[in-house]
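COMPLEX REQUEST
Ligand: S-adenosylmethionine
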Amino acid sequence: MIEKLPGLDGVDEGTRGTAVNHRMREVTELVAGAGAGADTWDSSLVGEVRTLFDSLAPDWTATRDHPRRNAPVLDALDRGAVAGRTVLELGAGTCISARDLRDRFDCYVAADLSWGMLSHAVDGAPPLVCADGSSLPLADSMIDVLILQNMFLFAAEVDRCLADDGFVVWVNSRGPETPIHLSCEAVVASLESATGSSWRAVTSTVGEATWAVVRRESRNAAR
Ligand SMILES: C[S@@+](CC[C@H](N)C(=O)[O-])C[C@H]1O[C@@H](n2cnc3c(N)ncnc32)[C@H](O)[C@@H]1O
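STATUS: Structure written out below.
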């Protein structure tokens, strides 16, 4: 079930090219696709993605940050009624969200595949972990809130690490123009296909940004 909330006005980020035919869109859909596994996200693809984001890291904050940059994730947390103690922001990049997230949660950690991104993290970033979201160094069910902003969806690993009553916060800063974008429907479908469980979502927009807060309806008893 997907609940749509009214959209809010916001500042559009605008002008950094288009997602059409963007290689990262192709990878996003591959990774989220039903059955995507180790044979899809292989060492060659990991290397391609890491090399790309390492190369973008030095200019990431300067070209992405602006005063209203975190409005979509904050709106998702507020209107999505997200609560929890242990929060992982995965694919956090340079942690532009840290200034607005670090005081909201008791335990907030950021992880990214790209050491380049983490090494350019903003002042005040939370503890940083260099890790691959397809295989996280975490115990089962230990995350209350998983924040994915403009990041791939590794549905089986999300299911493993997320607490039974946990929240997935999905943000696309430029909505469908974001290269790493999935619709709310596609996020739910990917999670349901990978887990065999039912998931529900609440979704809205802030300017051009889209967000979804996704939770399990029930966990697959066979897990
Ligand atoms: C489009 S950037 C978004 C960065 C940040 N969330 C933002 O919105 O500013 C995608 C980030 O995901 C990271 N990433 C890609 N694949 C990953 C993986 N398998 N595990 C962890 N991080 C990954 C990249 O290195 C990059 O920093």
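REMARKS: The pocket of S-adenosylmethionine is lined by residues 49, 53, 64, 90-93, 96, 111-114, 117, 132-134, 149-152, 173, 180 (CB under 6 Å). The domain at 2-218 is CATH 3.40.50.150 (Rossmann fold).
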